[in-house]
Every structure is written in C-alpha cells, then in structure tokens.
C-alpha cells in the first residue's frame, strides 16, 4: 500500500482523503490552518458514513478512518510519501510556494499532483528542480463520489510520472483521462463552458425559461450522457456510425451555431437567471439542496455499479 | 380517454404509440406504406415487453397493445382524433402535403403536432386554414423511454393548442417544455451542438482522445446532468448561487471559449473520430450496442422513478 499526502483539508482535500483511504492506502493530511486537519477527520467520518449507507464502501467507516492521519507539518505529511495531492487556494503565488516546499520535502521519486481547476502545471512547476514530477490531477467535486480525474501534465512532466499517476487513480476506482496538451479549463470545463454559453444565450434571447432548459438536459440529453459520452451517443444515433452522423447532421449543426453571439454573464442577464433560480430554489434551501445533490450522485453511482459491473 | 392518431409507423411513430397507449388512450396508427402499420404492431409488442421487464408499465403488454389500432387510411386514423402526432420523413414537401391532408381530415378541434427535429412549424403550416392548431412536439429518440418533449409553436399557433399539447404530454408522463420562439434545433439539439462542436475541436487539435472525452462526460459532467440541468448544477456549485457562480467563473469561461474556431465535420477529422470509435466498437456490434443503450436508458429511468418519486 502507498503513502499518500493530501495537502489542504477543505472539501476537495477531505474527499481525496476518502478516495485513497478506502482503497487501503495510508493518507497523511496537512492543512496550514491550525488544527484544520484534525477537525477535518470528523467531517471525513461523516462522508464515509454516507458512502457506507449507499453501499459505496465495503469496510466500516471507522476502519477506513484509521488510515487517515492528521499531520502537524507539511514536512511530516510528505517526507515519506509516494504521491502528493495538493488542494490549496486557486492562486498562482500560493501554488508556486506550496510546490516549491513540496519539491523540497518530498522524496525524489514522489509524484506532486495538484487538484487545481484553473492553473496549468507549467505555471506552478516551471522553476522547480523536480518539475518533471509535477502535474495536474483535476477532480470534479466531490471526487469521492464523481470518479473522473483529468491528468494534465506540463511539456516537461516525464512519462513515468504521467503513467504512475494514471495507474494510481485507476487502481483506486477513479476514471483518469489524459489531457495531452495544456489547455485552459482542461476538457470537462471546456465542454461545460460550451454548453453553458449557449444555455445563457437561449435564456437571454428569451427562447426558453431556466426551468425548461434544465428539464431539456435532465430529462433528455443528460440521461444518455450519464452512461455514454457525446461521441458514443452520436455514433449510435446513425446507422453508419459517427461518419454517417457527421454526413447527415454536420452542416445543420454548424449552421445552427454559426454567427451566434454569446452574451457576457453580467447585469440584467444574471438578474434574470438568478431570479428564476430563486423562484425554484429559495436561498434558505440552498445548502439542503447541495446535500440532496450528493445523495443523488451517490445513488446514481451505486445504480451504475450495481447494474453494470463491467462498465 | 382521448383518441390519438399517430402518422408514420417508423421508430418514432411506434414509440409514440406506446407512450399514448400505456397512458390508456386509444391510438390509431397509419403508415402510407402498405401494411407497415400492421407490421409495426409486432414491434410495438416487443417494446412493451421490454418496458414491462424494467417495471416501466403496469399493465400487461397485451392489454396495452389492444388500445393500438392499425388503420388502412389517414382519413380513418384521424377522422375522430383529438390529437395527431405526425412522424413522416424530414422533408418539407412531404410535411406540407401531410399537414394539408391532416388539416382536411381531422376534426376542427384536433391538434396537429409534428415530431420533426429540423422543420419549423411556420414552414409546414403557413398556408393551412387550420394553421392555428399546428405545432412541433419534438421528442428524443426513443420517446417511450426518454421523456423530454420540446413544444415549438409558430407565431400563429393559438395558446389553447399550446396549452392542450403541454397538458396532454404532461398527463402521459412525458416532460414537455416550451420553445417560446422558433429557433433551428430547438433547445436540446442546440445544447448538444454547442458541446459537440467543442468536442470535435478538442479531438481535432489533439488535446484528448475520443474515448477519454467520452469518459469526461459519462464519468463526470453527465452524472449531474442526469438529474439536474446545467443551471441547477452551477447554482449549487457556488455558495451564493448562480449570480455568485457567474461572478467567480463567468469571465474565465468567456475567455476560455473566445477566439475558438470550430472545424467542419469532414475529411480527415471524420476519419480520425470514426477510426477511434471503430476501435472501441466494431460495426459488427453496432446494432447490439443500440439495444444496450435502450436497456441502459430504461434502467436509468426505472432508477430515477424508484429512488425519486417526487422528481
């Protein structure tokens, strides 16, 4: 079993601690805020109980929890680590300082991975001696429920680092994918941005309400996308596969999206969308609904595992 | 119970027959190809058996099937109908001729709805006496499994027609949404087009493989979108809701997508994507995989109903 250091004990750091500990690795959790890591242990226990309830861990929460250790210093957390998963603020100066420290304290063959969603590996690793062992392993919140991990190396990240990170995430039950070249937003947020920009425009130009647009996805498009990707979807939607689909619909889709101007997300448009959302979900129920979302995700993951063990 | 005429007995027409018949309406099915409607009855029986297996109909298939009647002529099918769901070829001349006939044969208060995904209501209804009772009710394939229905009226469709169509689809268990103004692709295919265009570009420019992009959706983005729309998703992803999300990420998303050139779906790019898909799924398994998709959809719908009766 490996020794995994998790740096930062916020939502993402706690979720990663669960991911690695339930796969029987030992987790060394550090947070530079005084006693934050110790406090995080209690929240992690709650997360493990929730997973247990949905059949998503086999051991008891207390057994898994015993493999998670709160550390007093970064040095203590990483000095014997095989792999570091960093989860500090989305701020380049902070990332550079943290990775500089990690490069100093971690053993020379330890991989240094960041959970960042906005900062490219090349920006926080360029001047480090150990820059060949740095990369991004970007999760979707929360990673102990949603399995995708986007692995995005810098041009100088060595192939062993990439392969070992890929294999580690695969072995703990996550679904790693490789972002071959650095690109803002990686893959997932670029796809989300493309769809969202059109969604905002359709509401801005009053073609549809916020509620109806959401239904179009959750009772239509999103049902397929919960178990097939967009390419698999269109491949199966034409008798001759994706080439046939492109021949049938490619020009119509291109025409549909040509000359489309996407509005900026500000001013009256934000008020319009925010207003419609608050009619559907008052702020008083916002955090309750976040818990609902996580339960729904756990139920869906349990359903996918149960019904389709081979997927 | 209402009398529903279904015109065209292809995949969509057969699926609509199931939708209305399982909701206890009588369905009158016509196809201008000789004996096609009679043959369709057998295929519909298979569809009903599949639904029964997943607990998605309560009655036995044979009981539901008794409410579906193959008709010898369009006149016979529609002469006493309350609602017509048309499913002929995606060709404007054909749609215009069919709707002209429907307007002639159907009772004056009967609604005339088309399943078209590409032809606006105003184009096939403009010159009809009964154009006020025409609209599009666009399903996603197959509508007896996927519940979304996009209702897209012409400027001259009267509000009673829109409301009655909305209520009918809601009452049979579909999820109707209103497209307030005509727009190519309606809502669902525009959202799909936006995401697909970025997906094709990311593969074209070699940021990611087809398989990894699909994983990004089915093991990431698509899990949420199976039970939440994109607005609900971002509303719950920022403590202050969608306005907070816009303030945090709006400019990053806009920047991410600015100056992006989307390639046309042709030539070597089609070969690249088709080639990667055929490595994953050889053509010999293509139709088997279509059945797999429909089973997965039925399982997912059954899961959603079972776990979340209030949704």
Report on this structure.
2 copies of one chain form a homodimer. With 311 residues, the first copy, chain A, is an alpha/beta fold. Chain A is built from 13 helices and 8 strands. Chain A has 2 domains: 3-178, Rossmann fold; 189-280, N-(1-d-carboxylethyl)-l-norvaline Dehydrogenase, domain 2 (Orthogonal Bundle). Helices cover 53% and strands 12% of the residues of chain A. In chain A, strands 3-2-1-4-5-6-7-8 form an 8-stranded mixed β-sheet, sandwiched between helices. In chain A, helix 1 (11-22) crosses helix 2 (36-53) and helix 10 packs across helix 11. The longest helix of chain A is centred in the C-terminal third of the chain and has 22 residues, at 286-307. Chain A starts with a strand and ends with a helix.
Quick structural overview:
Chain A has helices at residues 11-22, 36-53, 61-65, 74-78, 92-105, 121-125, 159-171, 188-204, 210-225, 230-236, 241-257, 267-280, 286-307; strands at 3-7, 26-30, 68-70, 83-86, 111-114, 134-139, 148-153, 175-178. Chain A has 311 residues and is α/β, with parallel strands linked by helices.
